[in-house]
Design goal:
The chain has 241 residues and is an alpha/beta fold. It has ten helices and eight strands. The radius of gyration is 18 Å and the shape is globular. It starts with 7 loop residues before the first strand and ends in a 5-residue tail after the last helix. The structure holds cytidine-5'-monophosphate (C5P). Cytidine-5'-monophosphate binds next to helix 2, helix 5 and helix 9. The site of cytidine-5'-monophosphate has 14 residues, from helix 2, helix 5 and helix 9.
């Protein structure tokens, strides 16, 4: 199989749209590799911050990204473990503020260009599920399957606060009025990040031509998975296991 014939399932959309869960399940059931491109931008931002590089200096941020030593692995329980330059950043990488920093460096054309090869290198047989913002438009425009997920900022904020409760980062019995205020604040942050991702010059967050567009606001995760699985089976001529 030459690289060009290795199938790619490109899943794009804003954070909280359900991409992460969908991509993990798709990779599992087709036995494909998974590319979490957002993690590359998150790690680049953390590395630039650690080196004291200003986020407006594209060449310097790209140079830091080129030199960063990243390892993606799993702990003894099979949970994700990410190290950056020898430091365990598994939790920091997923924090809301790291996502915000990632979206600031993601506007830099030098950084985006630097990360192209790393992303292409993830395309390994028997196939790849690519999770991001520009998978179907810029990185893998030839992908056989293209999906664009969306959900309202309010729904995404609810999912995020629920996730924070599950992770024990917010009290499970937070009173309803505080919960509403917090959810509204998270929704505002989400709108701000979306605006930056959608309006940037380089690889803006837009659906690829021909992408299946799904609004997941009121769709259960299982229904999203079923619909995208059926599309992949049809387009790739393979069966989910
Ligand atoms: O998906 P995730 O929330 O991890 O992405 C963090 C940020 O990285 C996004 O808000 C976006 O600005 C940037 N990103 C990007 N292109 C990608 C993946 C992520 O610009 N392919």
């Amino acid at each position: 199989m030459t690289t060009a014939t290795i199938p790619v399932i490109a899943i794009d959309g804003p954070s909280g749209s359900g991409k992460g869960t969908l991509c993990r399940r798709l990779a599992q059931q087709f036995g494909f590799s998974l590319l979490d491109s957002g993690a590359l931008y998150r790690l680049s931002a953390l590395a630039a911050q650690a080196k004291g590089v200003v986020f407006t200096d594209g060449a310097a941020v790209a140079a830091v990204a080129r030199q960063m030593d990243v390892s993606f692995g799993a702990d003894e329980n099979g949970a994700e473990r990410i190290c950056l330059d020898g430091e365990d950043v598994t939790h920091r990488v997923r924090e809301e503020k790291t996502g915000e920093l990632a979206s600031q460096v993601a506007v830099l054309p030098e950084l985006r260009a630097e990360l192209v090869n790393v992303q292409h290198a993830a395309r390994k047989a028997p196939g790849l599920v690519a999770d991001g913002r520009d998978m179907g438009t810029v990185i893998f425009p030839e992908a056989e399957v293209k999906v664009f997920l969306t959900a309202s900022p309010e729904e995404r904020a609810k999912r995020r606060t629920k996730q924070l409760q599950e992770l024990g980062k917010l009290p499970a019995d937070l009173d309803p009025s505080r919960m509403r205020a917090l959810t509204a604040q998270v929704a505002d942050e989400i709108r701000e990040r979306d605006e930056r991702d959608r309006t940037r010059k380089e690889s803006p967050l837009v659906p690829a031509e021909g992408a299946l567009q799904l609004d997941t606001s009121s769709m259960p995760a299982a229904a999203v998975l079923a619909e995208v699985t059926a599309l992949c089976e049809r387009k790739l001529g393979i069966k989910a296991r």
